[in-house]
Every structure is written in C-alpha cells, then in structure tokens.
Amino acid sequence: TTTTTTTRHQMIGNNNDNSNNNKTNIAVVWFRDHALRIHDNLALVNAIHDKRYHRAPMLDNNNPRYDDTCQSSIVPVFLWEQKECGESMVLEKTGGTAKDVFVINALHSLNVTLDGNLSVGIVDATQHDDTVTATARELTEICHRAHANEVYFLKSHREQEDGMIEMKLRENGIVPVSFGGSFSLIDYTQHMVPWKDIVLEHPWRSPLIPFVEYVKRIMDEMPKQVLGVPTELDRYLVDLSRQELSSIVSKPCTINDLKTKVGRTMGGTNWGKSISKSWPATEEDAMKALSSFLDSLKDDQEIPVERDDDTVVVAKRTHLASRLSPYLARGFISPGQVYQSIKDLGDDNDVDSFLRRLCWRDYTYAAVQLYPKVLHGEPIRNGYEEVQHGIPMEDDERQRRFKCWKEGRTGFPLIDAGMRQLAKEGWMPQKVRLACSTFFVEGLGLSWKDGMQHFADYLVDFDESINSNMWQNAGCVGLDPYYVGMNYKRRMYWDSSGDYVRRWCPELGKLPNSVEIDDAGKTSKVVDCLYEPWMSPTNVLEKAGVVLGKTYPNRVCNDRETRSIFFSRLRDMRSKWPATKIDAQKRDLVNLGSAVGSVGLFTPRALQVREAAYSANK
Q1: What integer pLDDT is reported at residue 64 of this predicted model?
Q2: How far apart are CA 336 and CA 295, in angstroms?
Q3: Phi-psi region for residue 445, left (φ > 0), alpha (ψ -120 to 50) or beta?
Q4: Tens digit of each residue's pLDDT (9 = 90 or more) over 149-177
Q5: Residues 6 or more apart whose Cβ sits within 8 Å of residue 581
Q6: Whole-number Å distance between alpha carbons of 456 and 458
Q7: Residue 435 has pLDDT above 60, yes or no
Q8: Checking phi first, is residue 346 left (phi over 0); if not, alpha (psi -120 to 50) or beta?
Q9: How far apart are CA 617 and CA 615, in angstroms?
Q10: Mean pLDDT throughout 316-324?
C-alpha cells in the first residue's frame, strides 16, 4: 500500500526516492486522537527511518546511507481542537466530554513515553475559516519553527478533510507523508469495497452479515503486519526545554492545563474522576486489557469491580465484553493486533463471535467511505425526513422522557442499567448500546439525532463513524437497520444470571430472576421479574423490598403504544412513496455509489406496507 501524498512504500527500507536535496534533518510527527501509540505506528517508524537513511544526490545502486550524525530529528506534536468554547479549551459549563478525559490521560502517558518532548498546541477553529484551514496553518507554522518541511501522520476516517489538509500543506511548501489503515483492519482509502456483490450475497439483502465475511476472507488472505516500538526512539527525539516546547506551537498549553479544565463542570463537579478511575490510559494498560480478555475467552473469568465507597468486589465479566474499545478508539492498540491475537486462539464460537465484532467496526468505516456525509448527520436512506424528530408530543413530555433516559430512570431495568453505567464509566457493552438506542427511538419516540449526540458526549470510546452508523440504524435510516424491533425487555443471552442488571440497578437486586404465576386461571406463565418488574406479583415485589414509583421508577411511558405510533408513521410515510423508491420485495432502494447505483437493501418488516398502497402511487 502506498501513501496518497508521496511515492513511498509503507514497508520500512523500500523508499526508492533519492530526491532529498531540499529535505532537512528534522520531521514533525503529528499525533492524533485516534492514534496515540508508539508501537505499530507507521508514521513514527517511517519518520525515523527516513531521517536515519539519507539519500545523497548521486548514490550508486540507490543504496541507503546511515547518517551516524543524526541525533535529533523527530518533533512530536498534538493539536487540541477548540470548538464553540470561547477562550476556554473546552466548554466550561460541562468540562468537555468523556472522550476528552481519556484523551488528556492518554496524552500524559504518551508524553512520558516521549521523555516529555510532546508539544501540545490549541487549534482555535472559532477564529479561522474552519478546522481544516486552522490545522493546516498551524502545522505549517510548526514546521517553520522546527526547521522541518515534512509532516508525518496517520490518516483518520475523515478522508475528505485529511485530503484538504494535505493539499493546503503542499500549497504552503510542506510535504505531508500520511499512512492509512491505522484505525481499521483494512485501509478503505486504498481498498474499493464491492458493495453490490456483498449485498447480493445475502438473501435479505443485509449488507452487514456478508460484509463481515468479506473482511474475514481478506484478513485470512493478507494478515496485517504489526510493527513494534521503534528501536532507539529516544535517540531521534528532539530534546526540547519547556520554553522550546511552548515555542513550537502558536497557542501552547500544557497537559496539566488541560487536566484542570476537562472533566470538571463550571460548578466544580469533578465528574471525570470516575472515568479516569475506570480507564487507565497507557499502552501498557491496553495490552493488559487485551491479555485479560484473551484469558477470559479461555475460561470464565472474574474481574475486580470498585464501588463508590472504594471497596472492591469480584464480578463476572459480561460475556464477550472485552473493554478494549477505548484503547482501540484512541489508537493505544491497533485492530490488526487485536484480530491476530484473538484469531491465534483457534476455532471457538466465542472467538469467532468477537472476530465478527471487529469486522463490524470496519463496516462502519467502509460505510463512511461510501457516505462521508454520515459524519455530518445526513441519513443514508432518503425519504424518512418526516420522522427524523421523533413522534409528535409536547416539548415538556419530550424533555421528561429524554431526562429519564439519560439518568437511567426509565423503569426498564436493562435500559437503566446501561445508562447508569454510561454515566459512571463512559461505557456499556455493545448489546446494551443497541438496546438503549433502539428503546430511545422506538420506545420513547425521540429523535435518533438527540441520542447520537448524548452518546458522543458520554462515551469514553466515542468514535464518530461507529456512533453515527449505530444511531442511523436505530432510526431506520442507516445502511442496515438490522436491530430495529430489538426486544429490550427480554434477558440477554449473556446476562442469564441477571448479574448485569443487579450490579447497576441494586434496588432490584433481591428480585428473583423469574416466577411462575397463573394466568387468570387458564394456564401458568413465567414472569421475568428482574427485566419486567411491573409484571411481578405484589408479594414478590414486597419480599424484595421493591416499591415501584418509590424505590424504583415506574415506566416512563407505555412503550408498546409509542412503538405502535412510531412504526405506523413510518409505514404511512412509505405508503406515499412513488414505486421508484422501492424494489419488487418492498425494500428501500439505496444508492451504493455512482458506479453501482441504487440497490434494494434489507428493510425491516415493521416498516413495510401492503402492495396496494404502493400501487396507488405508480
């Protein structure tokens, strides 16, 4: 794979460019919030390599020459984006996001690894045309101050923005040297996904399932090389004093400056403390998390859990909840390394299930490559504009439902458990995220865009590609709304013991998992007391000390009625579509790019209407 900006190979030692007449002995390495690692970092490794092996103008056989005088050549920088927060580094009212807290801690550990030589600067997008322009300008000025003319970095999933930054750097006389595929299994800037072939593989035209198999085949055929930590890294770092560190960037700040602002509200609440406590942010911690998860796939594993009173109890790990996602999102560990480590465990149902989840991550990046406007909130499926704001209700009622959901007081135990964990740890298992997002849209009748923004603020592992795709699917406007209609009132297969709900909703802890009751003298039925406490007999609730409406909230609304209204509005809207918007099987026609055109994709049965309704619009 080659970079998009220079003719160079990513494999070390294969650079055949001998036109280095104008190159200096110094290069800027731009660390970004999706790639805060030293190991398996192509940008860092290549920056060191290109400065170690210099090309003289006339070298016989094009052989590299080792420059033994090169003692200082790499200037590492990180740019903190300041958006919509005035003169402050973050929005002072809230103290930033959960992701911000983790990034600050990650920068601290990265700076320690770099012997204190990481320059941190503020990019003030509020004072410039846009973030792209401000970033390119700042990188140019950094290069001028450092006497460098190259910037090495790992590309993000925002391909268009990265391309514009590279273009502006070139216009300013700076050479961008970028590398893709740092956050995904496959570099989708270089790999064209055959979407039509993938979709046609599945009988329901669901893109997700065959895409996962597609990625697995590629990974089997071309395993990804994982690079180690560059040897003698400290030898190639520019050794800067504190004054010199601050002079490299236009608007300098220290990591300690950021720590005083991030995770603290204007009123002084230090909400970031619990996030930092739950997620230690070093590359070593990422490797420990991976090792722990690998062990859990071999045996049932118990993990220590700290309570609010600082006591530690032992709890079972939620099935297949690796807790690797924050480290993957911030690039402490590469998905290729995780994939290969887990695959090496051999054939096993759990191993295969988790590999599929890693491929599902890639699915969101491939989708963003196809639909870049997804990151700006533009739906993939057109024609659903009428329901983008949820079902009709008074503003006060909408706000009440939203508040109950955010605080974990909906009266639906699985949802409340997930939202309480999110508030405290900035995280929840994948299945719970799907349940909470589905409930938000279908059960509460609220706009998927509002839920998407809340997750963006509260998720420590926030990834805009993953988050936007998940919420669009919950809102029925994504590429594959596979989980529409998910039953959030039934026990998940991984919580058969009820440990998850009992941990996060301790007021329900004494309820039995289920009881058998007579159904009006007809037949007996089993009630899941823990997941549907409102169905439990009064004597069972009393024995467990549960008083609905007092010790545990009543249901925030009649979710069955809300879901009925939600899907009825969708069906009514689709019934008015012209026949050209659906295929013969009543599936939405979705554009898969100019080279493919529109293809009928999986559409949940709950959204489909009778043929007669469509025929009237032909």
Answers
A1: 38
A2: 19
A3: left
A4: 999 999 998 999 999 999 999 999 999 99
A5: 383, 588, 589
A6: 6
A7: yes
A8: left
A9: 5
A10: 70
Q: Return the structure tokens found at 149.
A: 């003319």
User: Do residues 69 and 191 lie in contact, with contact meaning Cβ atoms separated by under 8 Å?
Assistant: no
Contact (Cβ atoms closer than 8 angstroms) between residue 10 and residue 42 = yes
* Ramachandran quadrant class, 474 (left: phi over 0; alpha: psi -120 to 50; beta: rest): alpha
Say which residue the tokens 């010790």 belong to.
Answer: 551
pLDDT of 446 over the 80 cut: yes
Give the dihedral of Cα atoms 488, 492, 496, 500; nearest 10 deg: -70
State residue 123 phi and psi, 5-degree precision. Answer: -100, 110
84-88, 133-137, 362-366, 605-609: range with lowest mean pLDDT: 84-88
**Amino acid of residue 429:** P
- The length of the chain in residues reads 618
* Residue at token pair 């069955």: 560
On whether the CB atoms of residues 246 and 253 are closer than 8 A, the answer is: no
User: For 413-428, what is each residue's pLDDT tens digit?
Assistant: 999 999 999 999 999 9
Euclidean distance between the first and the last CA atom of the chain, given in angstroms as a whole number: 48
Q: How confident is the model at residue 14 (pLDDT cuts 50, 70, 90)?
A: very low
- Give 68: exposed, middle or buried? Use CB within 10 Å, 0-12, 13-18, 19+: exposed
Of residues 441, 445, 433, the one with CA closest to residue 470: 433
Mean pLDDT on 322-351 = 91
**Tokens at 581, concatenated:** 């918007």
CA distances (Å), origin 119, targets 231, 385, 428: 22, 45, 33
Q: Would the CA dihedral through 385, 388, 392, 394 be positive or negative?
A: negative
Note the pLDDT of residue 488.
81
DSSP assignment letter at 62: G
pTM: 0.88
Q: Which residues contact 167 (CB under 8 A, 6 or more apart)?
A: none
pLDDT at 92: 65
CA-to-CA separations, 166 to 251, 528, 580, in angstroms, rounded: 21, 57, 41
Compute φ and ψ for 455, nearest 5 degrees. -65, -35
Are 532 and 501 in contact by the 8 Å Cβ rule? The answer is no
Radius of gyration of the chain (CA): 26
